[in-house]
Amino acid sequence: MSSSNSGAPDGSSSFLLGVEDGVARLVLNRPSVLNALSSELIASLCSTLEVLAADDSVRVLILTGAGRAFCVGADLRDPMMAVDLPAQQRGARFLATADNSIHALARRLHHFGKPVVAAVNGPAVGGGAALAFGAHIAVAARSAYFQQPFSAQLGLVPDMGASWYLMRRAGPARAMALTLLGERLDAETAAQWGLIWQCVDDDALQETVGSIARRLAASAPRAMKALPHVMWRALVQDLDAQLDLERDTQAELVQTEDFIEAVTAFKEKRPPRFTGR
Protein backbone atom coordinates (compact mmCIF):
# COMPACT_ATOMS: atom_id res chain seq x y z
CA MET A 1 0.00 0.00 0.00
CA SER A 2 1.28 3.42 -0.91
CA SER A 3 0.90 6.32 1.47
CA SER A 4 -0.29 9.85 0.84
CA ASN A 5 0.64 12.72 3.14
CA SER A 6 -2.18 15.12 3.93
CA GLY A 7 -0.23 17.34 6.28
CA ALA A 8 -0.21 15.56 9.61
CA PRO A 9 1.54 17.69 12.27
CA ASP A 10 4.26 15.11 12.83
CA GLY A 11 4.92 14.73 9.12
CA SER A 12 3.34 11.29 8.94
CA SER A 13 0.68 10.32 6.42
CA SER A 14 -2.76 11.06 7.80
CA PHE A 15 -4.30 8.76 5.24
CA LEU A 16 -3.03 5.74 3.33
CA LEU A 17 -4.07 4.82 -0.18
CA GLY A 18 -3.51 1.68 -2.16
CA VAL A 19 -5.05 0.40 -5.39
CA GLU A 20 -5.11 -3.24 -6.43
CA ASP A 21 -7.23 -5.02 -9.05
CA GLY A 22 -9.60 -2.09 -9.42
CA VAL A 23 -10.14 -1.66 -5.67
CA ALA A 24 -8.88 1.52 -4.00
CA ARG A 25 -8.39 1.22 -0.25
CA LEU A 26 -8.33 4.51 1.65
CA VAL A 27 -7.36 4.32 5.32
CA LEU A 28 -7.78 7.27 7.68
CA ASN A 29 -4.46 7.25 9.52
CA ARG A 30 -4.62 9.46 12.59
CA PRO A 31 -5.01 6.71 15.19
CA SER A 32 -3.67 8.83 18.05
CA VAL A 33 -6.76 11.08 17.76
CA LEU A 34 -9.10 8.27 16.66
CA ASN A 35 -8.89 9.41 13.03
CA ALA A 36 -10.50 12.78 13.74
CA LEU A 37 -10.92 14.95 10.64
CA SER A 38 -8.62 17.96 10.45
CA SER A 39 -9.06 20.67 7.83
CA GLU A 40 -5.91 19.47 6.03
CA LEU A 41 -7.11 15.88 6.01
CA ILE A 42 -10.54 16.87 4.72
CA ALA A 43 -9.00 18.88 1.87
CA SER A 44 -6.72 16.01 0.93
CA LEU A 45 -9.54 13.49 1.04
CA CYS A 46 -11.66 15.68 -1.25
CA SER A 47 -8.87 16.00 -3.81
CA THR A 48 -8.06 12.30 -3.59
CA LEU A 49 -11.69 11.31 -4.14
CA GLU A 50 -11.78 13.57 -7.19
CA VAL A 51 -8.71 11.85 -8.63
CA LEU A 52 -10.03 8.36 -7.89
CA ALA A 53 -13.42 9.19 -9.41
CA ALA A 54 -11.73 10.18 -12.67
CA ASP A 55 -9.52 7.08 -12.79
CA ASP A 56 -11.24 4.42 -14.89
CA SER A 57 -8.97 1.73 -13.48
CA VAL A 58 -10.56 2.27 -10.05
CA ARG A 59 -13.94 0.58 -9.82
CA VAL A 60 -14.56 0.40 -6.07
CA LEU A 61 -13.49 2.38 -3.01
CA ILE A 62 -13.02 0.90 0.46
CA LEU A 63 -12.99 3.42 3.30
CA THR A 64 -11.72 2.42 6.74
CA GLY A 65 -9.70 3.65 9.70
CA ALA A 66 -6.36 2.77 11.26
CA GLY A 67 -6.13 1.67 14.87
CA ARG A 68 -9.14 1.17 17.10
CA ALA A 69 -11.49 3.76 15.57
CA PHE A 70 -13.14 4.34 12.22
CA CYS A 71 -13.50 8.10 12.66
CA VAL A 72 -14.72 10.30 15.52
CA GLY A 73 -15.69 13.25 13.33
CA ALA A 74 -14.18 16.72 13.23
CA ASP A 75 -11.06 17.43 15.26
CA LEU A 76 -12.31 19.97 17.81
CA ARG A 77 -8.77 21.30 18.21
CA ASP A 78 -8.46 22.19 14.55
CA PRO A 79 -8.50 25.89 13.56
CA MET A 80 -11.57 25.23 11.39
CA MET A 81 -13.60 24.97 14.61
CA ALA A 82 -12.67 28.59 15.45
CA VAL A 83 -13.26 28.05 19.17
CA ASP A 84 -11.00 31.00 20.05
CA LEU A 85 -13.02 33.50 18.00
CA PRO A 86 -15.93 35.62 19.25
CA ALA A 87 -19.40 34.18 18.68
CA GLN A 88 -20.31 36.03 15.47
CA GLN A 89 -16.92 35.34 13.96
CA ARG A 90 -17.26 31.65 14.78
CA GLY A 91 -20.57 31.57 12.92
CA ALA A 92 -19.15 33.50 9.98
CA ARG A 93 -16.14 31.18 9.81
CA PHE A 94 -18.36 28.11 9.70
CA LEU A 95 -20.58 29.60 6.99
CA ALA A 96 -17.50 30.48 4.97
CA THR A 97 -15.80 27.10 5.27
CA ALA A 98 -18.46 24.38 5.64
CA ASP A 99 -19.27 24.04 1.94
CA ASN A 100 -15.58 23.80 1.08
CA SER A 101 -14.65 21.40 3.87
CA ILE A 102 -16.88 18.97 5.76
CA HIS A 103 -19.85 19.26 3.42
CA ALA A 104 -17.59 19.15 0.36
CA LEU A 105 -16.33 15.80 1.66
CA ALA A 106 -19.89 14.55 2.17
CA ARG A 107 -20.80 15.57 -1.38
CA ARG A 108 -17.66 14.03 -2.88
CA LEU A 109 -18.50 10.73 -1.26
CA HIS A 110 -22.19 10.80 -2.18
CA HIS A 111 -21.47 11.70 -5.81
CA PHE A 112 -18.33 9.56 -6.16
CA GLY A 113 -19.86 7.65 -9.07
CA LYS A 114 -18.48 4.26 -8.07
CA PRO A 115 -19.41 1.85 -5.27
CA VAL A 116 -18.11 2.90 -1.86
CA VAL A 117 -17.75 0.27 0.85
CA ALA A 118 -17.11 1.31 4.46
CA ALA A 119 -15.24 -1.09 6.76
CA VAL A 120 -16.24 0.33 10.13
CA ASN A 121 -13.50 -1.07 12.34
CA GLY A 122 -14.35 0.89 15.49
CA PRO A 123 -16.24 3.91 16.81
CA ALA A 124 -17.92 6.05 14.14
CA VAL A 125 -18.93 9.28 15.84
CA GLY A 126 -20.46 12.50 14.53
CA GLY A 127 -19.14 13.15 11.05
CA GLY A 128 -17.39 9.79 11.18
CA ALA A 129 -20.78 8.08 11.38
CA ALA A 130 -21.91 10.22 8.43
CA LEU A 131 -18.94 8.94 6.41
CA ALA A 132 -20.02 5.37 7.12
CA PHE A 133 -23.67 6.10 6.32
CA GLY A 134 -22.55 7.80 3.10
CA ALA A 135 -21.07 4.57 1.78
CA HIS A 136 -23.22 2.46 -0.51
CA ILE A 137 -22.44 -0.60 1.60
CA ALA A 138 -21.24 -0.38 5.21
CA VAL A 139 -20.00 -3.37 7.17
CA ALA A 140 -19.14 -2.91 10.85
CA ALA A 141 -17.08 -4.92 13.29
CA ARG A 142 -19.10 -6.20 16.20
CA SER A 143 -17.12 -4.01 18.61
CA ALA A 144 -17.87 -0.84 16.62
CA TYR A 145 -20.58 1.65 17.49
CA PHE A 146 -22.23 4.74 16.01
CA GLN A 147 -22.99 7.95 17.86
CA GLN A 148 -24.39 11.42 17.16
CA PRO A 149 -23.34 13.45 20.22
CA PHE A 150 -23.91 16.88 18.65
CA SER A 151 -27.01 18.07 20.51
CA ALA A 152 -26.60 16.18 23.78
CA GLN A 153 -22.90 16.89 24.32
CA LEU A 154 -21.89 19.79 22.07
CA GLY A 155 -25.00 21.93 21.74
CA LEU A 156 -24.98 21.46 17.96
CA VAL A 157 -26.90 19.49 15.34
CA PRO A 158 -25.71 16.64 13.10
CA ASP A 159 -23.90 17.60 9.92
CA MET A 160 -22.06 16.01 6.98
CA GLY A 161 -25.45 14.61 5.94
CA ALA A 162 -25.97 12.48 9.05
CA SER A 163 -29.52 13.81 9.54
CA TRP A 164 -30.38 13.00 5.92
CA TYR A 165 -29.15 9.41 6.13
CA LEU A 166 -30.59 8.75 9.59
CA MET A 167 -34.10 9.93 8.75
CA ARG A 168 -34.21 7.85 5.57
CA ARG A 169 -32.60 4.68 6.87
CA ALA A 170 -33.55 4.48 10.54
CA GLY A 171 -36.90 6.29 10.31
CA PRO A 172 -38.06 9.39 12.20
CA ALA A 173 -38.68 7.81 15.62
CA ARG A 174 -35.28 6.17 15.86
CA ALA A 175 -33.41 9.02 14.19
CA MET A 176 -34.89 11.64 16.51
CA ALA A 177 -34.18 9.66 19.68
CA LEU A 178 -30.68 8.76 18.55
CA THR A 179 -29.75 12.37 17.83
CA LEU A 180 -31.56 13.96 20.79
CA LEU A 181 -30.10 11.57 23.36
CA GLY A 182 -26.69 11.17 21.74
CA GLU A 183 -26.51 7.55 22.82
CA ARG A 184 -24.20 4.95 21.35
CA LEU A 185 -25.74 2.54 18.86
CA ASP A 186 -23.96 -0.81 18.69
CA ALA A 187 -23.12 -2.28 15.32
CA GLU A 188 -25.51 -5.20 15.59
CA THR A 189 -28.45 -2.89 16.29
CA ALA A 190 -27.35 -0.57 13.48
CA ALA A 191 -27.59 -3.51 11.10
CA GLN A 192 -31.02 -4.48 12.46
CA TRP A 193 -32.20 -0.89 11.92
CA GLY A 194 -30.96 -0.86 8.33
CA LEU A 195 -28.34 1.83 8.92
CA ILE A 196 -25.60 -0.51 7.70
CA TRP A 197 -25.52 -3.64 5.60
CA GLN A 198 -23.94 -6.07 8.01
CA CYS A 199 -22.31 -6.58 11.42
CA VAL A 200 -19.54 -9.19 11.53
CA ASP A 201 -17.01 -10.45 14.02
CA ASP A 202 -14.01 -8.16 14.31
CA ASP A 203 -11.57 -10.63 12.80
CA ALA A 204 -13.85 -11.18 9.80
CA LEU A 205 -14.32 -7.50 8.90
CA GLN A 206 -11.54 -6.95 6.40
CA GLU A 207 -12.06 -10.22 4.53
CA THR A 208 -15.81 -9.62 4.35
CA VAL A 209 -15.32 -6.13 2.95
CA GLY A 210 -12.60 -7.34 0.59
CA SER A 211 -14.90 -10.00 -0.80
CA ILE A 212 -17.68 -7.45 -1.34
CA ALA A 213 -15.28 -5.05 -3.05
CA ARG A 214 -13.98 -7.73 -5.41
CA ARG A 215 -17.52 -8.63 -6.43
CA LEU A 216 -18.34 -4.99 -7.10
CA ALA A 217 -15.09 -4.47 -9.03
CA ALA A 218 -16.12 -7.29 -11.36
CA SER A 219 -19.50 -5.67 -12.07
CA ALA A 220 -20.41 -3.36 -14.96
CA PRO A 221 -19.04 0.12 -14.07
CA ARG A 222 -21.72 2.14 -15.85
CA ALA A 223 -24.51 0.21 -14.14
CA MET A 224 -22.75 0.62 -10.78
CA LYS A 225 -22.68 4.38 -11.36
CA ALA A 226 -26.31 4.62 -12.44
CA LEU A 227 -27.81 2.39 -9.76
CA PRO A 228 -27.44 4.63 -6.65
CA HIS A 229 -29.09 7.55 -8.45
CA VAL A 230 -32.03 5.39 -9.49
CA MET A 231 -32.44 3.96 -5.99
CA TRP A 232 -32.24 7.27 -4.11
CA ARG A 233 -34.72 8.94 -6.49
CA ALA A 234 -37.26 6.30 -5.53
CA LEU A 235 -37.53 7.95 -2.10
CA VAL A 236 -38.57 11.35 -3.41
CA GLN A 237 -40.78 10.78 -6.46
CA ASP A 238 -43.94 8.91 -7.31
CA LEU A 239 -44.15 5.61 -9.16
CA ASP A 240 -44.82 7.14 -12.57
CA ALA A 241 -41.72 9.33 -12.33
CA GLN A 242 -39.66 6.37 -11.08
CA LEU A 243 -40.82 4.20 -13.96
CA ASP A 244 -39.75 6.95 -16.37
CA LEU A 245 -36.33 7.09 -14.72
CA GLU A 246 -35.93 3.32 -14.86
CA ARG A 247 -36.95 3.34 -18.53
CA ASP A 248 -34.52 6.10 -19.51
CA THR A 249 -31.61 4.63 -17.56
CA GLN A 250 -32.23 1.16 -18.92
CA ALA A 251 -32.41 2.52 -22.47
CA GLU A 252 -28.90 3.92 -22.02
CA LEU A 253 -27.47 0.78 -20.46
CA VAL A 254 -28.81 -1.66 -23.06
CA GLN A 255 -26.73 0.22 -25.62
CA THR A 256 -23.46 -0.60 -23.85
CA GLU A 257 -20.93 -3.22 -24.83
CA ASP A 258 -21.10 -4.50 -21.26
CA PHE A 259 -24.74 -5.49 -21.72
CA ILE A 260 -23.90 -7.48 -24.86
CA GLU A 261 -20.97 -9.07 -23.01
CA ALA A 262 -23.32 -10.08 -20.19
CA VAL A 263 -25.75 -11.71 -22.61
CA THR A 264 -22.90 -13.47 -24.42
CA ALA A 265 -21.39 -14.69 -21.16
CA PHE A 266 -24.77 -16.02 -20.06
CA LYS A 267 -25.12 -18.01 -23.27
CA GLU A 268 -21.56 -19.30 -22.96
CA LYS A 269 -22.02 -20.13 -19.28
CA ARG A 270 -19.05 -18.07 -18.09
CA PRO A 271 -18.55 -15.01 -15.91
CA PRO A 272 -18.86 -11.74 -17.86
CA ARG A 273 -15.80 -9.55 -18.38
CA PHE A 274 -17.00 -5.97 -18.07
CA THR A 275 -14.95 -3.10 -19.47
CA GLY A 276 -17.11 -0.07 -18.74
CA ARG A 277 -17.94 0.49 -22.39
Q: Can you give a write-up of this model?
A:
This protein is α/β, with parallel strands linked by helices and 277 residues long. It has two domains: 2-217, 2-enoyl-CoA Hydratase, Chain A, domain 1; 221-268, Lyase 2-enoyl-coa Hydratase, Chain  A, domain 2 (Orthogonal Bundle), CATH 1.10.12. It contains twelve helices and ten strands. It has helices at 39-54, 87-97, 102-110, 127-134, 150-154, 162-169, 172-181, 187-193, 205-217, 221-233, 239-253, 257-268; strands at residues 2-4, 15-20, 23-28, 60-65, 116-120, 124-125, 137-141, 145-147, 185-186, 198-200. A seven-stranded mixed sheet has the order 1-2-3-4-5-7-10, with helices on both faces. Strands 6-8-9 form a three-stranded mixed sheet. A hairpin with a 2-residue loop joins strand 2 and strand 3. Helix 4 crosses helix 6 (162-169) and helix 6 (162-169) packs across helix 7 (172-181).
What's the CATH topology name of the largest domain? Answer: 2-enoyl-CoA Hydratase, Chain A, domain 1
Supply the CATH architecture of the largest domain.
Answer: Alpha-Beta Complex
β-sheet strand percentage:
5-15%
Terminal CA distance reads 29 Å
**What's the shape?**
globular
Number of helices: 12
SSE pattern: EEEHEHHEEHEEHHHEHEHHHH
Largest sheet: 7 strands, mixed
Q: Briefly, what CATH class of the largest domain?
A: Alpha Beta
Summary keywords:
alpha/beta; 2 domains; seven-stranded mixed beta sheet; 277 residues; single chain; 2-enoyl-CoA Hydratase, Chain A, domain 1; three-stranded mixed beta sheet; Lyase 2-enoyl-coa Hydratase, Chain  A, domain 2
